[in-house]
Amino acid sequence: MKIAMMTRWNVPSGQSCHAEPLGRAWLRMGHEIKVFAPAGMDLSLVYQHDESFVRRCYMQDIWGERARSDFFFDTQPFLEEDYDIFLVEMTAIMPMPELLKIFPQIKKKAKTVHVVHETRLPEDPNWYKFDWDAIVCFDERYREFLVKAFPEEKIAVIPFPCHPPMQGDKKETRKSLGLPLDKKIVFAYGADSVYFHVGLFPVIEKLSKDYPMLFLLLSHHTQTAMPEPKPMPEFFMLRDEMITDDKLYTYLHASDAYIYFGRLSIDGVGVSSCVTTCLGAGRPVLVPGYCNFFDLSGKEVIKYADFQDLEQKLRGIFDGTESVRDNLVAAEEYAVRNSSLEIASQFIKLFEKLRGERNTRQLKQKSL
Predict the structure, then answer these.
(1) Residue in 51, 114, 285 with CA at minimum distance from that of residue 190
(2) What is the pTM of this model?
(3) For 306-322, what is each residue's pLDDT tens digit?
(4) What is the CATH classification number for the domain harbouring 110?
(5) CA 137 – CA 135 distance, rounded (Å)
């Protein structure tokens, strides 16, 4: 099967976290992929060289890029490349007016699929003008608002893909990263800036009185770290790196626990691509129970009610009194159940169904 993906790629974003494991799984399964990725601001975020199948052929409609004098949308790859499936990740950030103009030509040669990252129904009327063959969302919360705008039979629920479980030795990974061997390491990672994570400092400071502590933050937004320069506590380490998932797992394996702490809630529904990516590392994952990113999460994550509860749960993990075995088992089972290969296979079944419907209609038309 030949699959074209219009998506962010090789950059730290929820769309990339979804598209990249799927695209690479499809390649391993023997399918062909073409990626139509954004240029503009995204080029400054690319963390590894683009593969040969990636074409950066347009600018997104975010960050004021449409107002730039060099804004562009190259129709050539969309119209001349050969593909059976055309999949778009999060239409709302794409240049919709330009895509709408060529969308009928795309539909003549390919089945069209929209993967909805949008957290609620957008206000832009252009979003509703696309006649998608299928609309994919991550769970039933998304379906609840999508059925208000689209036929229910077009909506498919396919979970967000996980990194396959991968174990690693704590001591060896710490050595490879130049991290201390004698400290408890609490790890945080994500697109949010250091400014968000300063809120965790009082918790770590209390813990540091009883344990040798390191709060390690991996962030690519250090330029927005603080409203003004301030000295950082000794227990805090910031690393500014653009990394692949395998390198991320090296950091996870070097840690005693991973904490998600960024945006605590959003208007609508959401899924944390950071947490989903990290579930297969065999380390406790702690998340705020009051964040709607985790409304559907079960034992695969450890939910904390407030900072006091977070402190107690970390103490329990360090002392061995907080039972994390059930959480780690549940996290591994979740990561296996929703591994990139498994989710990629679910998409292929959807694509085959769509293509089968197309072939049936073509045969009927020929018989008339």
Answers:
(1) 285
(2) 0.90
(3) 999 999 999 999 998 88
(4) 3.40.50.2000
(5) 7
The string of pLDDT tens digits covering residues 245-269 is: 888 999 999 999 999 876 555 678 8
Residues 230 and 148 in one domain: no
Check whether residue 52 and residue 122 sit in a common domain. Answer: yes
- What's the mean pLDDT when you consider all of the chain? 90
Of 177, 335, 320, nearest in space to 256 by CA: 320
Average pLDDT over residues 44-67: 92
**What's the number of domains the chain is made of?**
2
Given a contact cutoff of 8 angstroms between Cβ atoms, the answer to whether 239 and 218 are in contact is yes
Same domain? For 346 and 328 the reply is no
Are 347 and 311 in the same domain? no
Residue 230, pLDDT above cutoff 90: no
Specify whether the CB–CB gap between 298 and 330 falls below 8 A: yes
Per-residue tokens: 286: 């702690």
Residues of the domain holding 108: 2-161+339-367
Helix axes 307-319, 201-208, angle to 10 degrees: 40
